[in-house]
Structure to design on (273 residues):
């Protein structure tokens, strides 16, 4: 009986967290075809997201991004119910690991992160690692794991925010953040977080506090979309620029009222007659 009640409450919480927040508008959403042309196998697509769960993750990670997906490219027979190729692999708390079409995120603010210097063979290894996890269903039966996301702005200090993601069993956390993608890149020994390293004879070190944070993230698998964005080892690809942007060919919209005219329009009616 208790298991049935717990499963019912879990389903209700998941449905609540999946609901979009009101008045969302992307900062910028380029043409879907431009994004598609810019993507390469192994790229990571970061998504802003507009659900209640997204709002909490963005707050806890102090980032624009709440979700990450791996671009695996088109595969024969893997299409959506609308006939679109499923080219993104993602992990969600309610669905587990699945592939989805790019159109799912065309209306969101996104960012493309690309591993540098990885050849085609190793990119395929990353993709194969992730694809082997397709269908994996994460345990979402622990209510405490989901209930903590029902409060978009929990009153916790900055140093504790990322650790909030690890409270509970941890399995749902792996389904909603970027751990799967991080593990896929770790399988080819590609770094994500800052490291103490020697490059061209010069040693690069990080502060002790930051090192402690990095160690904690690795130990508990607390990778988040933000880690790919700020990683010193991933390049940021902007589709509009990659498409051959030339500022001289920009077609501006209709003339708008200048700031001076707008100010004058607001002030004149207030002047005495």
């Amino acid at each position: 009986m208790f298991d049935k009640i717990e499963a019912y409450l879990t389903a209700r919480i998941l449905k609540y967290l999946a609901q979009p927040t009101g008045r969302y508008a992307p900062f910028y959403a380029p043409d879907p075809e431009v994004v598609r042309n810019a993507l390469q196998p192994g790229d990571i697509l970061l998504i802003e997201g507009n659900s209640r769960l997204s709002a909490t993750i963005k707050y806890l990670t102090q980032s624009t991004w709440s979700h990450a997906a791996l671009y695996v490219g088109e595969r024969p027979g893997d299409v959506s119910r609308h006939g679109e190729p499923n080219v993104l692999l993602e992990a969600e708390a309610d669905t587990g690991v699945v592939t989805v079409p790019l159109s799912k995120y065309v209306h969101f603010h996104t960012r493309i992160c690309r591993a540098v210097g990885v050849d085609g063979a190793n990119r395929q290894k990353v993709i194969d690692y992730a694809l082997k996890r397709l269908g994996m269903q994460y345990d979402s039966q622990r209510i405490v794991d989901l209930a903590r996301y029902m409060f978009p702005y929990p009153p916790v200090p900055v140093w504790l925010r990322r650790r909030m993601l690890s409270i509970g069993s941890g399995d749902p956390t792996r389904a909603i953040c970027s751990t799967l993608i991080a593990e896929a890149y770790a399988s080819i020994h590609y770094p994500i977080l800052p490291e103490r390293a020697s490059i061209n004879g010069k040693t690069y070190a990080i502060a002790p506090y930051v090192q402690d944070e990095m160690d904690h993230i690795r130990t508990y698998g607390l990778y988040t979309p933000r880690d790919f964005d700020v990683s010193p080892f991933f390049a940021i690809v902007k589709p509009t620029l990659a498409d051959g942007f030339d500022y001289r060919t920009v077609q501006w919209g209709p003339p708008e009222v200048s700031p001076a005219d707008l100010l004058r329009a607001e002030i004149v009616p207030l002047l005495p007659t």
About this structure: The chain has one domain: 2-270. DSSP finds twelve helices and eight strands in the chain. The CA atoms of residues 35 and 78 lie 20 Å apart. Residues 172-176, 267-273 have pLDDT under 50 and may be disordered.
